[in-house]
Amino acid sequence: MANNIRLLDDNTINKIAAGEVVERPASVVKELVENSIDAKSDSIIIEIKNGGKKYIRVSDNGIGIDKEDIDLAFLRHSTSKINKAEDLSKVLSLGFRGEALASISAVSQMELITKTVDNDIGNQVEVIEGKIRDLKNVGCPKGTTIIVKNIFFNTPVRKKFLKSDNTESSHISDIVYKLSLSYPNISFKYIRDNKVIIKTPGKDNLLSNIYSIFGKDFTDSLFKTNYSGDDIKIRGFVSKPSFTRGNRKHQYFFINGRYIEDKKISKAIEEAYSTLIPANRFPIAILYFNLPPNEVDVNIHPNKIEARFERESTLRKIIYKMVKDVLKNNNLIQEAKLNKKSKDKSEQKNIINILNTKENYKEKDKNNKIFNTSNKTEELNDKTEVTLNKIPTREKNKEDNTETFNKDITNEENKIKENNTNYEREESITKKLPNIKIIGKLFSTYLIGEDLDNEAFYMIDQHAAHERIMYEKLKKQYESENITIQRLLSPEVVNLTHGEFEIYKNNFKLFKNMGFEIEEFGVNSIILRGVPMLFGKPNTRVLFLDILDKLHENIKSNYEVRLKKIMKKACVNVIRAGDKMETIEINQLLEDLEKTEKPYTCPHGRPVIIKMTKYELEKKFKRIQ
Amino acid sequence: MAKLTPMMQQYMKIKEQHKDSILFFRLGDFYEMFFDDALVASKELEITLTARECGLKEKAPMCGIPYHSSDNYISKLVEKGFKIAICEQVQDPSTAKGIVKRDVVRIITPGTITDMQALDEKSNNYLCCVYMDNEGLGISYVDITTGELHTTETRGKKEKLKRTLIDELAKITPNEIIVNSLLFEETVFVKNLKSRFDVMINKYHEWAFDKKTASNRIKKQLDVITLEGYGISNNEFSVSSTGALIEYLNETQKIALKHLNNINSYSIEKYMVLDINTRRNLEITETLRGKSKKGSLLWLLDKTSTAMGARLLKKWLEEPLLDINKINERLNSVEYLVDNQYILDEIKELFKNVYDIERLVSRIVYGSCNARDLISLKNSIGVLPKLKKLLIETDSEDLMKIGKNIDELREVYNLIVKSIIEEPPVTIKEGGIIKKEYNEELKELKEATVKGKQWLTDLQADERNRTGIKSLKVGFNKVFGYYIEVTKSNIENVPENYVRKQTLANSERYITPELKEMESKILGSEEKSMDLEYKLFVQVRDYIRKEIKRIQNCAKIIAKIDVLCSLSQVSYKNNYIKPDINNDGILDIKNGRHPVVEKTLDEELFVPNDTLLDNNNNRLSIITGPNMAGKSTYMRQVAIISLMAQIGCFVPAENATIGLVDRIFTRVGASDDLSQGQSTFMVEMSEVANILNNSTKDSLLILDEIGRGTSTYDGLSIAWAVVEYISNKAKLGAKTLFATHYHELTELEGKLDGVKNYNILVKEKGDDIIFLRKISRGGADKSYGIEVARLAGVPNPVIDRSKEILESLENRETEKKEIAMTKDTIIKENEENYDKNEIKKEESDFQLSFIDKNKEEIIDELKSVDMMETTPLDAINILYSLTKKVKDN
């Protein structure tokens, strides 16, 4: 019994302590880059492979480490930045606990190459599990390079908790954005899997720095903003009301050069935007604060991401007014300079509200979506507006960054399916839709139905539902090669351009299989003799040309893809041109929808049906807290 | 006696005039080759050899290719070094009486190929013409796909002229050379050129080089009465070569090459002179080994978006500037673009729509352009207004200046927009290329067609009603035209006036007179509109042909901007800095890097190094240090940084002051001249001779291990003398990096003006050495050759033995030092007298061998001792005598 409690050996202590600092590869990058910054570098290269799990390299051109100091650097609580506790209040450097190198080296295979400016020769050491091996001379440029390989190789459990390569790299990317934003005077180069992702100019120009990180559309959407008081100075950018995000991910605040997250600052900015942007949308903000160091306390958490400062309410007022003024003077204010050219184009794009960083578009886009919804969850409590498409199982998907955008759509379907799984089990396996009793129609588009058994209500988008039904019918007929053709009484001659004619010729078979009866009719012209019956009596000519255009866009895709595209296109057309919604029997619609394979989305991936439980509703009305 | 058929007679007549070419003889849809041509072509192209009656007893060997796919075959043959004469039917066969007239319309040679598929779009395809006599040399070269024509000339002795020619050809890398007969008669030299540049060289008519003829020929081409505006009126050699070149083009191309409307005459001294070895050693456009673009400086710097830009960048790299203002103009533009990435990005975005305008223009000139080419041209020049606006709005004076010079070519653009359909077919004679709104007549014709077709569909409905046949339809196929189709089951209802035309399995097809009438109306107007479209297209094309000079100017500007963008992009991505250019001869580089090696190092970190060379105390750096330590990389790096600065690019360094250099010479490693049948040492020495004879005090010399190809003392002496010669300001005084393993040379610092010692640091660790790749002041003490040999995997016994030998040799070192010292004093007295050193050397050799002889005696004595028979006293005595012998020496 007495032996149950014992002292841990150093190795174990180090491994445990490392956990505080080294959560994942991104934390390694953060610590190393912060060290580089503290070493007065003006050029820092960050290279990662496999999401940083296999390989992280941070190279700087800073002051380097003396040979004599290398040993010390790997000791816990060794730091060059403070001597005693009192110094903490004056800390202007980033790392100061003296944990970084020790912690990282405890859980990885590390290599350090360093040279100070005064020496001709550099030194190289290997550090494995915190132990320095093999110190040797080496030729190298001035500065320090640290390579971290196989992180958590000695702590298998932690290693297991690492996420996919994509997830880990997106964490690292986040860190790199933040660091490069906070140091416009340093040139950052970020290489991911041998590809240069970001290269910032490092010339202390905020705007060209932002441009090099986020690209043109982002930069074009910014207003410059400034405040200069006695001891509080703020400079930076906020987005035009037309360019918003679904979450706060692109609100960056830097206090005395350090990145922090602060809800209160966010709130102050958002208040200035109220009524200008839709609810649940958030402005972009990149703001740099200069505050007296003795009024800021950053030593709250090892990740040093939150900060406290005195005179908080004053600061909030300043921010609110500053942003409000910028927005008010919208027209007078000189817009961000990059904006000068091709304004119109970018504004058009802004409407889409999707933000492309220079990074992988799809990945980012997906992140947005995910955060979009999870953010809403937390918003429910303090906002009064109703969020309808809140889907509780999203959380799971958050970790699933590896999937491509295309899969995302099917995912969406799955998620909705998941929502309904409970129900399905209770009722019958074949039944896809719950028993909905339609009780009304909204905006003559959405059907409202209740499902008393499950204490839920549903909204169905009639158009989407109809599209789905038509699409599956057409697909089924096509697959069974049993398309009913509607002969046109008076065939229609369509004169095409040479280009269109070529497309037609290349896709002749496709049209035929789909139920078009077409023949060539002289030079560059064709005659339409029949169309698929399903389409009713749409404007055949327009439909045909639309499909040709669609084919032209996707000239390289394979047969299957083209086919699907066309069918989707056709369905939209049919509904647009043909049947009025009123004429559709509602019950027939539900019945038909039930028969489809995927009743939850329209062929383009938009939802057909949205569910909301009684519980959620009551929560919104604050019946339940 | 059999007689040739008339056609074969025609063939023989034409072939007679084109004996040196393979004759492509047009027969209908084919180009046919006969007799020997057929034998050669069928083999080279791997096509079937047949035969054709020709009137003689034996059939004529024959092979042929369809005319529409001839491009491929032609370029294949041209690539193999054949000339092709294209013989077309020059008369409409339908109106010809007897045999159709045929004539050669074009001769295609490696230098005059215009098939875009066969050409690398990123480099020029030059045809070069050289005139050389005992007094001077004229070189002219042209790229007929872009219309640029350059010429230069130089005077001097024959050997120098040959050298210059080789260096210029190394820059031009032509695909075909024509020369005057005097030069052609230098058979050894011509053979040498042929194999060195792998190029076709032919003699051309002597009369074409005649100054007067040539001059007139040029004037006619440029349509001027004097050549003064082109700066060649006094350059007789340039005139000869240019005139002959144009004559040759005239003879082979047989059309007016309107896009050859300017002559760029330059003097070789206007650009930094890079001899053939330097171009190769510095790996400017291709690597030394493998000759690939990848790994060359061009590869690193080429981020151009257009083919024109890519070609211009290559040209810039081949012709670094000497004019400080022009260099700074480029550098300032690059600086602006580096600092304003968003402008750079926007320009690059614009250039995505830009095609190879220069080559489009040449297709317009050749009349081989189609409507798609015009659309490409339209899209390309469509970016001009935006580009102009972008450049004018910059804060960079130089970019603004370029911007202001942009001609927006709006009328050309508008004309194409108005006239040509956006997505036209490849063919130009089958319609569908001209917008109907462009021409009233065309519109009427098109509408008639549409109306006619409507009439046909109406006819279907009418006839259904009239006959009661529900399945009746009006259809079309290419053979029968329009018809009425009735299924078999309805045949009995077919009216009288239907004429049966075709029977199918399930149906019958009929025509009626009125259907045919309408058909001929439709087809007639279709045919008419095709003809009209072609006519209109030719009109549009001819209008544009008048504007090609303006279009070419725009192409030049786009190319320049593209190159500037490319240099900026590379500079930004790789952290290059703007060099400070001066005329004071100071080359001061802080933490310079080798741009290509830096890129190709993967895990290893590139170690930057400083360089200081000037016109005073730092003229010649003697660099010592082991092999593999990075001497060559370092020296090349300095040369490349200078070169990059002088093309107007940022350089890989932390700080760089670049004094302009007029020439860069390199003598590095073994060159591939070995294939020329000269010994390594001979090649080395002739290169040294070339360098010493042609460099000036403003040149930069990179000399690696001069004198290593001969015995140690010979080599050392040569190296020593070369250092003295170069460092002597009165004689040469060029800035020099001199790498050597003769450590004796390090003694020259302090003794000769401007010489400084440097070495590459290494660290010994047991038997191994660590390369630190850092240049440092002072000489190295040894070369670590054996250590390097070990690293290279030389077997251990050899390594151990070489260590032993080294040790014994090093004993001689002390002796030699003394010699060197005496040598120095002698040199001080009389710089060019080495005779006494030779004597000293012999003495020392004698001394050394004496020591060895002594050793052998002692060993022999030891060997003769039989220990079993030796008493302790004897042993002591032997030891005594041995010690005495050694001590006596």
Description of the structure:
Chain A is α+β, with helices and mostly antiparallel strands and 625 residues long. In chain A, 39% of the residues lie in helices and 22% in strands. In chain A, the strands form six sheets. Chain A has an eight-stranded mixed sheet with strand order 5-4-3-6-2-1-7-8, covered by helices on one side. The longest helix of chain A is centred in the middle third of the chain and has 22 residues, at 361-382. Chain A is elongated, with a radius of gyration of 30 Å. Chain B has 889 residues and is α/β, with parallel strands linked by helices. Helix content of chain B is 48%, strand content 17%. Chain B contains 30 helices and 27 strands. In chain B, the strands form five sheets. Chain B has a seven-stranded mixed sheet with strand order 13-23-24-25-21-26-27, sandwiched between helices. Chain B has a six-stranded mixed sheet with strand order 3-4-2-1-5-6, sandwiched between helices. A six-stranded mixed sheet of chain B has the order 11-10-7-8-9-12, sandwiched between helices. In chain B, a hairpin with a 3-residue loop joins strand 14 and strand 15. In chain B, helix 13 packs across helix 22 (548-573) and helix 17 (384-392) runs antiparallel to helix 18. The model of chain B is unreliable at 825-850 (pLDDT under 50). Chains A and B meet through strand 5, helix 7, strand 21, helix 16 and strand 23 of A and helix 14, helix 20, strand 14, strand 26 and strand 27 of B.
Question: How are the SSEs placed, and which strands pair?
Answer:
The complex is a heterodimer of chains A (625) and B (889).
Chain A: H1 10-21, H2 25-38, E1 43-49, E2 55-60, H3 70-73, H4 100-106, E3 109-115, E4 122-128, E5 131-138, E6 143-149, H5 156-161, H6 165-182, E7 187-192, E8 195-199, H7 206-214, H8 216-220, E9 222-228, E10 233-239, E11 244-245, E12 251-255, E13 258-260, H9 263-273, E14 282-283, E15 285-290, E16 296-297, E17 308-309, H10 312-328, H11 343-350, H12 361-382, H13 394-397, H14 405-426, E18 437-442, E19 446-451, E20 456-461, H15 462-479, E21 485-495, H16 498-506, H17 508-514, E22 517-520, E23 525-532, H18 540-553, H19 559-577, H20 586-595, E24 609-613, H21 614-620
Parallel strand pairs in A: 1-7, 12-15
Antiparallel strand pairs in A: 1-2, 2-6, 3-4, 3-6, 4-5, 7-8, 9-10, 10-15, 11-14, 12-13, 16-17, 18-19, 19-20, 20-24, 21-23, 22-23
Chain B: H1 6-17, E1 21-27, E2 30-34, H2 35-45, E3 50-52, E4 60-66, H3 70-79, E5 83-89, E6 102-108, E7 127-132, E8 136-143, E9 148-155, H4 158-172, E10 176-179, H5 181-184, H6 187-197, E11 200-203, H7 206-209, H8 211-222, H9 236-253, E12 264-265, E13 273-274, H10 276-281, H11 297-301, H12 307-318, H13 324-339, H14 341-351, H15 357-366, H16 371-381, H17 384-392, H18 397-404, H19 410-419, H20 440-467, E14 473-477, E15 481-487, E16 499-503, E17 507-511, H21 513-546, H22 548-573, E18 580-582, E19 587-592, H23 595-600, E20 609-613, E21 620-624, H24 631-647, E22 655-659, E23 663-667, H25 680-694, E24 700-704, H26 712-727, E25 735-739, E26 755-765, E27 768-777, H27 785-791, H28 796-829, H29 835-864, H30 872-888
Parallel strand pairs in B: 1-5, 7-10, 9-12, 10-11, 13-23, 18-22, 21-25, 21-26, 23-24, 24-25
Antiparallel strand pairs in B: 1-2, 2-4, 3-4, 5-6, 7-8, 8-9, 14-15, 15-17, 16-17, 19-20, 19-22, 26-27
